[in-house]
Amino acid sequence: MATRNTPLTCAGHTRPVVHLAFSPKQEHDGTYLLVSSCKDGNPMLRDWRGDWVGTFVGHKGAVWQTKLSSDSARALTGSADFTAKFWDTFTGQALVSLPHEHIVRTVALGPGGTQGMTAGQEKKVRVWDLARAGQGTVGDPSFLKAPGLATAHEGTIKSVIWGEENLGVSAGDDAVVRWWDLRTLASPFHLKLPEAPTSMELSIPTQTLTITHGKTVSFVPLSGPESGPSHQVTLSHAPSSASLHPVFGDRFVAGSVGDPWVRVYGLEMGEEREVYKGHHGPVHCVEYSPDGEMYATGSEDGTIRLWQTTPGKSVLATGSAFVAAAPAQAVLELSGVERLPTPATVQTSNATLAAADRDETNIRVLTFNCCTDWLAPQP
């Protein structure tokens, strides 16, 4: 009998959700954030439990992609309003707006969050120095150009990845994936696909690019196809997006351009292991959380759904690891102090969030003053 997997539904968007991205696990508590991009133009930030944190308000068109910095302090968005914006995730303010001449479809942030890449329908990849964005100043970008071309690709660029410090990867509608040396701005090699890619995501722990094209999912080493073996799985349907499990590396989840089902496949043989229905429209994007305990899906129906990798298991952050616990006894353990999960509801624009800290001698109720002026009305 198939295991029932009831997802947690995260509402709030008013149009199709087109991209999802998790932050890395944070070193101090092992938690992470999830950011969603949507055609409603309002990217949303959520915590590791799916609770709404805030909405980035400022774009005047669909937001196609959002990426978080490694410390989650910054976000970069790309929009149909011909701009990319660099955000402070603590205040929700746009530090700087980066002008373009056409729709921005994809963005990436460097490891330190002080450099970024943007690309889209101009067929150009821009590399930005964002170190002074906090002062509202950003210099002119550098441009990546493929050998023999005035641009990076011959078609719309759907995805850019900032891998290691000086390594970039881009994928375009010309069915080409290019690797870039960001020191020299040169492309040392490329991979030609039989079809244009529909998505490309990076699994940081496995250092693997997951690329969907046609009915195929390709798994390619981040350092390039010449550095190690690639692997391909052909599916019975055309995947819109796919994500490799970051811990086990033996399975992947895929969405579909033609139906509302979410499917999990084995990596080696491509066998269909799990099939779940919860959305009411095609599933545009999927992404595993950095600990592999769940995956998020975004759909034409305007919702995000969080699915457990192991249905029925309850997990809690403890340091940089996760442990099972009963839901009614959920306790977050940090440095020997047990902390009850903080309520997620923001009640006013100058909200106070209460949490109970317990040590061996007393129980204290702490109040945290939160600046929430940047937050849009809670979904």
TrEMBL record:
Keywords: Kinase, mRNA processing, mRNA splicing, Receptor, Repeat, Transferase, WD repeat. The keyword Kinase applies. GO terms for biological process: spliceosomal snRNP assembly. WD repeats lie at residues 56-97, 97-130, 150-184, 276-317. SUPFAM superfamilies: WD40 repeat-like (SSF50978). It comes from the Eukaryota. One of its GO terms (molecular function) is kinase activity. InterPro entries: WD40/YVTN_repeat-like_dom_sf (IPR015943), WD40_repeat_dom_sf (IPR036322), WD40_rpt (IPR001680). Pfam families: WD40. GO terms for cellular component: SMN complex. Belongs to the WD repeat STRAP family. This is Serine-threonine kinase receptor-associated protein. It comes from Thanatephorus cucumeris (strain AG1-IB / isolate 7/3/14) (Lettuce bottom rot fungus).
